[in-house]
Every structure is written in C-alpha cells, then in structure tokens.
Request: fold
Amino acid sequence: MKGQNKLFIAIIVALILGVVMGGIVHTQYPESSEGFSKNIKLLGTVFIRLVQMIIAPLVFTTLVVGIAKMSDIKMIGRVGTKAMLWFIIASLVSLTIGLVLVNWMEPGKVMQLAIPAAGDAGEVVANSQGLSLEQFVKHIIPKSLFEAFATNEVLQIVVFSIMFGVALANMGEEYTKPIVRALDICAHAILKMVGYIMWFAPLGVLGAIAAVVATNGFEIFKVYAIYLRDFFFALGILWLVLLIVGYLILGNRLFELLRRIKAPLLIAFSTTSSEAVFPKLVEELERFGCNNRIVSFILPLGYSFNLDGSMMYMTFAAIFIAQIYGIDMTLGQQITMLLVLMLTSKGIAGVPRASLVIIVATCTMFGIPPEGIALILPIDHFCDMGRSMTNVLGNALATSSVSKWEGQLDNHGGDL
Reply:
C-alpha cells in the first residue's frame, strides 16, 4: 500500500514537472516545440516497450492457469456453472456499458492529437491498422506459438492458451499439477514484474505530458476533467444496473448486504485494491448468511473472472484513446475488441494497474497508439479507486446471488 502511494506521488510529481517543462517550451520557445516533443516522448517509449515486453507471457500464464484450475468446477457442479454464467454475463454487460457510454459522451473528442510517427511502437500500430473481420479470422489461429509471442498477437496466444488450459484440466491431476504449479509461479513472477515496470510510469507520464503541453498548451487538463466526469458517470450507471439485478434476486436483503460490505467497499476505494479486502469480505458474506463452502469457492473465482469495474474501464479507456487520436472504429471492430477484452482480461486480479497492460495490448492490436496510455496514467489512480470498489460490489452480489439460487442463504444471517 505504501509502495502504491509512493508511485502515485511520483506520477503526480512527474505530471507537474511535465506541465512546467512543456509550458515553458510552449510559451517561451514555440519554434523548438516539435523537436522537444519528439525527444521527450522517448521516455514514454521506454515505458510502453517495457509493458509490451510482458504482455504475451502474462496472457499465456494467467489464462492457462485459470482454465486448468477450472477442473474444480466439476466437483461443485451446478454451483460453478451458475457462478461462471453470472461472471460471463456481468463481464459482457460491464464491457458493453463502457463501450456504449464512451461512444455517446465522446470524452476524447475534446482534444485531438496527431498519431505518433512510425517508430518502435508506431510500426506495430501501423501494421495492425484497421483490423477487419477477415483479418480477425486469419489471425485467430496461430501458425506458431513462438511467432505469436514474438509479435504479441494476443488473439493467437489466447486461442493456444484456452486449448492448452482445457487439455490440462481434463488430464489427471498427478500429471498436470507440476505444470500448473510451475505456470502459476511464472504468472505470479510476471505480475510481480508489472509492479516493477509501473515504477517507470512516472517517466512515461513526464514524457507524454511534456510533449502534449509543449505542442498543444494546457488544453490537456480540460480533457482530464471531462474524462473523470464521464468515467464516474459510466461507473454510476454500472452500479445502478448491478443494484437493480441484486434487488431482483435478494429483495430487501440487498440493503443489509450493502450495510455489511460498506467497510470493504471503503477500504477498496481508498487503497485501490480489491484484494486488500478479501479476508474481510469473506467474513462479512458469511455473517450475511452465505454458505461458507460457496463463499470459499465463488469469491476466489470471482477475483479472477468477475471484475466488473475493471471490465467497464477497459473498453472506456481504449475507445477514449482512439478518440483522442482521431481514430474512428467501426461497430464490428468495437464488438471484436469487446470480445478480445472479455478473454484477455481474465486472471490478472488484485494487481494495481495490471488492467493497463491489457489495454496497451488491445490498443496495439486495433491500430490505436499505445502511447495514449501514458496520457491517462496521471488520473488512473482516481479511476482505480472507483473500479476497485465496483469489483468488490460485483463479487459480493455474485456470491450472495448464487447462494440464494442454491437455497444456501441463511435469511437471518448471524455473527461469527
């Protein structure tokens, strides 16, 4: 938690330095703004390349481990099926809400940036411009896993990972346990690397903000204000949908559930980590009356597969970046993006800002400059507060609802 606060402070300091540097160049040396912007952006390039470096192994290991462990569902049968049905529908609804509202409100249209010139990241973007349905079909099946890794072809990695994970899940545990454990360790190691790489984020912010301010002046702050306003409005709509569904299933007991989980919600909001409240959430759900076996199964699964706030943010942020660079995406491309995010986002729960890695991968795949992620990093902390809180609410509702469906919800609750 302290590390996250230090990182947040470092990003804010980098933001201020970038504004000062860019402002000086913009007002005092306008003739040098183009050269300054080009050079200072290299700091952002360092950060983006580090993020792109871990995309392929992160998607592969987390997805394989998540699917391989799904063999547990067979033991719990219909409980696991109902839980996964909830997770899939909730994820699709969350992604769709983000997609619809960002297209309706168009927060990225406030300011237009030039698409970065072809460079290291730019070449990848140029090569992936305009992903059509035909290209999607061509690129979905990998010729070689190693080629998919080398080119960060996320869809191909997802296809291989799903097939490999399903194969492992259907083999005897005596064969698969060492492999799954090894991949699980690799996944945790890569997620640890995400934490290290995020310490380069202040450099990326400094480079991105200084370049934008030097070229466009102080208009970026108007963009930030509108982005935060629109995002939290979209989050409010998602909460409304979740609470309506919760009321339809739980009735008046929904209000008791909200009273029970108010502390975990506030902790998740203040720490930007839904994992920080996991033990407390387990305790409160059992006190609410949920069967402890259902809680111990669904809640950990939900932390990997049911991240409603993060899901909505991914489509919102990706389309916002496309808008700010003036890239128009067809409806088909946006639906394809939604389905890709549905698959690639699984298994990265509990790591602050790990969702940004998936957004970078998705942007690159759909011809959107991944450099745009550095623009939203300064305010991502505030967005993370909202989406972490929403993730906790979504998992609490999922666990309570499945308990109710199974007739395992004690109507009186109880204190432990």
Remarks:
- The chain has one domain: 2-405.
- The first helix runs from residue 2 to 28.
- The mean pLDDT is 80.
